[in-house]
């Protein structure tokens, strides 16, 4: 389960992602943020097999992981707000237990295998 600090941030549960507690805001959600581009690009460069590792690309990998774990990547209480240099995923409070049950640690410790496994799905899931 998340471990929020006094600022409402959990820097460790999903590192290098940051989980931000925004339950007391008008949006009443938690936000999964990826913004550690140096970490990602130092390890993998800007692309992996021609798949861009930018905000949209990371969002696509998250959607692929959700899809391959039997979850709707575009569920009504999951909102994506990504740009080229940011990946933000807004989750309704009911999604916190589901988020914690996903194999997110696979992203953290073996991104190579995650990219190889989920990349084809990420490309398909994110196709217009």
Protein topology:
Blueprint: E1 9-10, E2 18-22, E3 29-34, H1 37-44, E4 47-48, E5 51-52, H2 55-68, E6 78-80, E7 87-92, H3 96-101, H4 105-109, H5 111-125
Antiparallel strand pairs: 1-2, 2-3, 3-7, 4-5, 6-7
Helix pairs in contact: 2-5
Overview of this protein structure:
With 128 residues, the protein is an alpha+beta fold. 38% of the residues lie in helices and 20% in strands. It has five helices and seven strands. The strands form two sheets. The protein has a five-stranded antiparallel sheet. β1 and β2 form a beta hairpin. The model is unreliable at 105-110 (pLDDT under 50).
By helix and strand content, what is the structural category?
Answer: alpha+beta
Q: Give the percentage of residues in beta strands.
A: 15-25%
N-to-C SSE series? EEEHEEHEEHHH
Q: What is the helix fraction of residues, given as a range?
A: 25-40%
Give the C-alpha Rg: 14 Å
Mean pLDDT level: 76
Shape: globular
User: What spatial order of strands do you see in the largest sheet?
Assistant: 1-2-3-7-6
Poorly predicted regions: 105-110
* Number of extended strands: 7
Give the N-to-C terminal Cα separation. Answer: 34 Å
Total number of helices: 5
Biggest pleated sheet: 5 strands, antiparallel
């Amino acid at each position: 389960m998340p471990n929020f600090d006094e600022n409402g941030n959990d820097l460790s549960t999903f590192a290098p992602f940051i989980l931000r507690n925004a339950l007391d805001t008008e949006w009443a959600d938690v936000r999964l943020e990826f913004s550690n581009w140096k970490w990602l690009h130092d390890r993998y460069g800007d692309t992996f097999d021609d798949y861009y590792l930018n905000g949209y690309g990371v969002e696509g990998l998250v959607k692929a992981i959700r899809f391959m774990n039997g979850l709707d990547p575009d569920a009504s209480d999951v909102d994506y707000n990504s740009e080229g240099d940011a990946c933000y995923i807004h989750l309704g409070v009911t999604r916190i237990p589901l988020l914690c049950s996903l194999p997110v640690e696979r992203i953290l410790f073996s991104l190579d295998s995650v990219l190889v496994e989920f990349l084809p799905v990420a490309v398909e899931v994110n196709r217009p």
